[in-house]
């Protein structure tokens, strides 16, 4: 079993860690298959409430392992087949009801952008750098980059990254909306875990459904989205958790609006 991606569990929290630091966590064919299998397993596990996606070493992910591809007897059909495999994993993460936070440090390049954007909330280290590099080696975007990147930062900014040899730093990524937060390197792991724990300590399932509605909604008609919203909020309203939270909210509101007695 490959250890290029590690999965650890702490109760309902699953941590998925890229673990090829010597290759800047670039994804080779074996790692791509493991990514797909882990995504399918974790997103299908009802006991998982939230996911942290992080990486060992100085970089989050340098995209596809171009060095390995160059040295392998693989052709375009093989690359296409592996892209489909990795895309299955990205689809599972994006369309699942598991909220995912990514902790990102160092380089995020090429397909690494798509892997990062499979997370719903991205915390970046001040050291993070983001770059496309596809055209530098004569290739086109994959791993969801042509869809997820413009959805995150807008078409013009996505094209600025894809059509120029341009690297943006963490502060620019924050300004563009590519990441949600920027923190000092020593605070990255703790902050990502705090985000995940916030989900787990509150209405976890509601956060997961909110994430699912937003992610799925981008690919459906407005009418389908409205129907899904109506069904989802009704289903949540009937849960015991929601009933207790609504009752507590109503009680607090009544108390706050009650007339004050004169001292």
Architecture overview:
It is a single chain. The protein is α/β, with parallel strands linked by helices and 263 residues long. The chain is built from 11 helices and 9 strands. The strands form 2 sheets. Strands 1-2-3-4-6-9 form a 6-stranded mixed sheet, sandwiched between helices. Helix 1 links the parallel strand 2 (13-18) and strand 3 (50-55). The protein is elongated and about 80 Å long. The mean pLDDT is 92.
Q: Which features would summarize this protein structure in a list?
A:
263 residues; alpha/beta; 6-stranded mixed β-sheet; 3-stranded mixed β-sheet; 51% helix; 15% strand
Largest sheet: 6 strands, mixed
Based on CA atoms alone, the radius of gyration comes out at 20 Å
Distance between the termini: 72 Å
What is the string of SSEs from the N terminus onward? EEHEHHEEHEEHHEHEHHHH
Lateral strand order in the biggest sheet: 1-2-3-4-6-9
Helical content stands at: 40-55%
Ranges where pLDDT stays below 50 over 5 or more residues in a row are: none
What is the mean predicted local confidence, pLDDT?
A: 92
Class derived from helix and strand content: alpha/beta
Q: How many beta-strand elements?
A: 9
Shape: elongated
Portion in beta strands = 15-25%
**How many helices in DSSP terms?**
11
């Amino acid at each position: 079993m490959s250890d290029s991606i590690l999965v650890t569990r702490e109760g309902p929290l699953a941590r998925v860690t890229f673990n090829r630091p010597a290759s800047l966590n670039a994804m080779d064919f074996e790692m791509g298959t493991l990514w797909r299998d882990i995504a399918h397993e974790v997103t299908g596990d009802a006991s998982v409430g939230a996911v942290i996606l992080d990486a060992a070493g100085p970089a989050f992910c340098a995209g596809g392992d171009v060095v390995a591809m160059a040295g392998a007897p693989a052709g375009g059909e093989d690359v296409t087949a592996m892209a489909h495999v990795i895309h299955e994993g990205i689809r599972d993460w994006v369309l699942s009801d598991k909220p995912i936070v990514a902790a990102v440090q160092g380089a995020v390049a090429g397909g690494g952008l798509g892997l990062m954007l499979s997370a719903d909330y991205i915390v970046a280290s001040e050291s993070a750098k983001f770059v496309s590099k596809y055209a530098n080696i004569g290739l086109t975007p994959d791993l969801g980059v042509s869809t997820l990147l413009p959805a995150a930062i807008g078409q013009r900014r996505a094209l600025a990254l894809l059509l120029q040899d341009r690297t943006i730093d963490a502060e620019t990524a924050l300004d563009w909306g590519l990441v949600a937060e920027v923190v000092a390197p020593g605070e990255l792991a703790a902050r990502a875990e705090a985000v995940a724990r916030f989900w787990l300590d509150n209405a976890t399932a509601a956060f997961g459904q909110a994430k699912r509605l937003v992610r799925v909604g981008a690919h459906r008609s407005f009418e389908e989205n409205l129907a899904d919203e109506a069904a989802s909020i009704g289903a949540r309203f009937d849960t015991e958790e929601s009933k207790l939270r609504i009752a507590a909210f109503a009680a607090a509101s009544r108390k706050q609006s009650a007339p004050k007695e004169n001292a």
